[in-house]
Amino acid sequence: MTTTSLPELDALLKDWQQKIGYISQNLFELYELPTYQRLMGEGGMPKAVLTGETQHQVTLAIGDLTQLFQLFELLRETIDRAKSLRSQIPKRGGDGLVLEIMTLLTTPSILLPQQLVPLQSRDLISSSTQGDSVTAEALLGRMAVLFSRAKNIVLGVDAAWNQLETSLIEFQKQAVPILNELTALLQSAPASVPIAIQQQIDKFQTEFAAVHQAIDTDPLTAKNSLIQQLKPSLDAMTQHLTDLAAQRNAMERRLDDALRGMGELRSAHQTGLVVFAEWQDKVLNLPVATLPSVEIISELTQWLHRLSVAYQNDNHSAVHVGLTRWQVQFEQTMSQLQTATTQAKRGLQSRIELRGQLTAMKAKAAALGRSEDLRLGAIEAEAKQYLYTRPTDLSAAQRLVCEYAQILNCR
């Protein structure tokens, strides 16, 4: 071994001290990782229960880290001994100590922990254990391999957990509102949720719990496709809510149309009552159709109100059936009302038209020089008696107007 100067020795010791500092820092940062603490059950975190490939890899990593810590202690003890010897070197001389320090740092002076030699690898006089001696540099190389291997496993689990748990959280954000809405429907209006959807909810919750457990226990094996397996169940539940929303919208439109129609029916009924009253006052012959009664209009109004309340209570099935029946009754009532009102208006209009015809024919008679015609005068007087008294006998008035026209048109 060549002679080493004290400055060279101090530089070598400083380099090793710096390496010890780097190793301590890197190990500390690895141990401080939440994933490492979760795997080891440290830092106040419960130890993760692992299965499958993740359990296998983490077991290897723990073994590597355990060995790494043992080797680190050997290296640190060696550097500490070298530092202690350096402090004993006098200002003059001390070549023996320098040589001892260099021997510690550069030769295979570090004895590795004893390892069991398998029986099949021993001969008759072999020891059951063996331990190699290595240089500090070689020891550092072994430590680097162990650290890299363990770090890659821990960071691999960390990345898998982060990715999968983030994906699961995002998926859960989509699922929770849908599950909450369906659960609320099951409590308030169970009839609106078919058995198939109720079974889908149970299936989804069971599958979600299984996926969550798979991610917790074996993230290295779990893939995003595992989360995507939940999507069909979520899609089925989402589609049901979409269909329910469409049904609600359609029901709302039907109810709105019914309310508008009911308002139109009440208004038309009020008009019909006025027209019918005038008809009864002015025309003797009543129409065949009669107005719907006030009670029928009131019954339809109350029926529609009950359907609206049922809709607010999410009893959509009953509303659908009831609204269909209500619509039939409504249309029949509206038809009856329109027929009766039309007939009454037609009768009133006929009375007015007959008056006009009689006036027009009287003017024609005067133009023809027949204003003094006794027969026409008698018919006119009788017709006026009908047309200008209440109620008017339309049949008699029509007959007299026709007779007046026939006589006037005869030369």
Describe this structure in words.
This protein is 77% helix and 2% strand. With 411 residues, the chain is mostly helical. The chain has a two-stranded antiparallel sheet. α11 packs antiparallel against α12 (394-409). The longest helix is centred in the middle third of the chain and has 53 residues, at 136-188. The model has no long low-confidence stretch (mean pLDDT 88).
Secondary-structure blueprint of this entry?
Blueprint: H1 6-32, H2 34-40, H3 52-88, H4 95-106, E1 110-111, E2 115-116, E3 129-130, E4 133-134, H5 136-188, H6 195-217, H7 224-228, H8 231-282, H9 294-312, H10 316-367, H11 374-387, H12 394-409
Antiparallel strand pairs: 1-4, 2-3
Helix pairs in contact: 1-3, 3-4, 3-5, 5-6, 5-8, 6-8, 8-9, 8-10, 9-10, 10-11, 10-12, 11-12
Can you summarize this structure?
This protein is mostly helical and 411 residues long. Helices cover 77% and strands 2% of the residues.
Global shape: rod-shaped
Q: How large is the share of residues in beta strands?
A: under 5%
Going across the biggest sheet, name each strand in turn: 1-4
Overall mean pLDDT stands at 88
Helical residue percent? over 70%
N- to C-terminal distance: 162 Å
Counted up, domains total 2
Q: Largest sheet at a glance? A: 2 strands, antiparallel
Q: Give the number of DSSP strands.
A: 4
Count of DSSP H/I helices? 12
